[in-house]
Amino acid sequence: MADSSITKKALASALKKLMSERPFSQITVINICELCEMNRKSFYYHFKDKYDLVSYICYTEFIKAASEKDYTDGFDLLYDMCNYFEKNKSFYRKILKNESNNPFYDYFKGWLMPIAEDFMKKIFASSENNQFYADFFTDAFINSLKKWILSPNPMPAKKFIEMIRSCVYGISKNTVNQIDE
């Protein structure tokens, strides 16, 4: 088990090093393996492709720790997430610039979706539309996050989350006021 972890960490480190030198789209599994002095079989024993390796990096650096925290406010989780992406901006910019068939988007959405579903259940009780709302919120958040990361001069993570919080609460307040009228 320890050898597996060491191998995965070495492959992750190699990918990060290569990404500091060139675009993600120009990095192959062979490049990663050569830098680690491993064969491709070792890579494919642990990961199905380089996107799977990116998902592993995100999991080990952020998702695992976030999953162990007890968040009382969803915006605290979003702030921690954005803070992580802000600190690793150059890495994720290269990942998110790759538009064609980006499995990282699906991985990240798969992790966020249960959180959004839980959030929607709290807001809408037992609405039959909760799945739609969670899907909408998750897509909107990920696309906003992507746009934020890819912007040439992104605002600080704290301000980004304050803007999202303000938007969500503003829409909610306006909706409640319209219902009460």
Radius of gyration: 19 Å
Count of discrete alpha- or pi-helical segments spanning 4 or more residues:
9
Helix content: over 70%
* Overall number of structural domains: 2
Question: Main β-sheet, in a few words?
Answer: none
The sequence of SSEs as H and E is: HHHHHHHHH
Based on secondary structure, the structural category is mainly alpha
Tertiary shape: elongated
Beta-strand content estimate: under 5%
Q: Total number of β-strand segments? A: 0
Cα(first) to Cα(last) distance is 62 Å
Unreliably modeled segments: none
User: What does the average pLDDT come to?
Assistant: 86
What's the short story on this structure?
The protein is an all-alpha fold and 181 residues long. It is built from nine helices and no strands.
Describe this protein's structure.
There is one protein chain. The chain is mainly α. Helix content is 78%, strand content 0%. The protein folds into 2 domains: 1-47, Arc Repressor Mutant, subunit A; 51-180. The chain has 9 helices and no strands. Helix 1 (2-19) packs across helix 2 (29-36), helix 4 runs parallel beside helix 7 and helix 7 crosses helix 8 (130-150). The chain starts with a helix and ends with a helix. The mean pLDDT is 86.
